[in-house]
Amino acid sequence: MTRATVILTFLMLCLFAACSNESNKDHTIIPVPLDSLVEEPIVQEQVSSSNLLVDLSREKNIQRLLCQGWVMEDDQDVLRDNNEAEGMFPYRCFYFFDDYTFTRNVRNYLEHGRWTYNDSKKTFYLNTINSSTDEYKIAAIGPEDMIVINSGTNSITQLKFSASGKIYSNKKDDPYYVDNNRWRIRPRSSETDEQIKKRLKDCLHFYILFYKDNLERRSDIISFYGFPTCLKWYGGGIFMVKEAELADNWFACFYNKEQAMKAYNMMEEVIVKKYKWEKGNVSWVKRNLGVLKQMHAAL
């Protein structure tokens, strides 16, 4: 064996050993340097048939067709062009549920309350938690399209909304169901450390459902635009937002700034732990989801 052959063999063995050691390391939550996740697709992954979603394509009943997520068509590109935590651009939407609760504008100033529907007038009414009432007359509706008029303001403008035509068989699996967003509603009084931790854990639960929802619906665009958070999301990494860069809507989830920062510090203690990252040919969404579940358990 020549000296050159010996050297080449040695280098190949070193390279193999390095790769082997790297594959056995636990991943820490360190982001990879991606500029944006707004246009990051879910690729090369088929979601298992979980039967979580119900197809509404054959549904004719208006009240049942209403019970899904509706987004104003004029605002569809907002998610494609934005990924900031603070929702400065309007993303007008309704999420109706069969227990007659609703949420709306979930990426701006979240509102919730109860809704009713009058079939003879083809009108639905929204009663928000602050006692304001809006009414919208339905001009046309199908499984994936709806045209309404804000009849409560005597408007004649037709507003076009679109939907996926699919709903969860269990509304509690929907990230936009009101019970999954109570962590975003500012408490009326100071909270204990346990209550703050519960609010933080509910925050992680929301993001778990959000990741699951994007996988279930095979979303091609994933944007965290407008959602309160103290975390940054990367392809294969989760990172803390710098304290100076926290958006106002994060502080709005807590009784005061002091309690918001207490939750921030709790998250810091969780994020430094070691977590197992899924390997193989899976999307970054599924990898992050697996770690989020571990973080939720660590709280």
Quick structural gist:
Helix 4 crosses helix 6 and helix 4 packs antiparallel against helix 7 (284-298).
Structure description:
The chain has 299 residues and is of the alpha+beta class. Helix content is 30%, strand content 20%. Strands 2-3-4-5-6-7-8-9 form an 8-stranded antiparallel barrel. A two-stranded antiparallel ribbon has the order 1-10. Strands 11-12 form a two-stranded antiparallel ribbon. A hairpin with a 4-residue loop joins strand 5 (111-118) and strand 6. The chain starts with a helix and ends with a helix.
From the N-terminal CA to the C-terminal CA, the straight-line distance is 58 Å
Alpha-carbon Rg, integer: 23 Å
Number of strands: 12
Report helical residue fraction: 25-40%
N-to-C SSE series? HEHEHEEEEEEEEHEEHHH
- Please tell me the overall pLDDT: 86
Q: What's the overall geometry? A: globular
| Spatial strand order of the main sheet | 2-3-4-5-6-7-8-9
* Class by alpha and beta content: alpha+beta
Number of helices: 7
Low-confidence stretches: 1-49
Strand content: 15-25%
Question: What characterizes the major β-sheet?
Answer: 8 strands, antiparallel, barrel
Topology overview:
Layout: H1 3-23, E1 53-55, H2 62-66, E2 69-72, H3 77-81, E3 93-96, E4 101-104, E5 111-118, E6 123-128, E7 133-141, E8 145-149, E9 158-162, E10 166-168, H4 193-216, E11 231-234, E12 237-240, H5 248-251, H6 257-271, H7 284-298
Please describe the structure with a list of short key phrases separated by commas or semicolons.
299 residues, alpha+beta, two-stranded antiparallel ribbon, 7 helices, 12 strands, globular, disordered N terminus
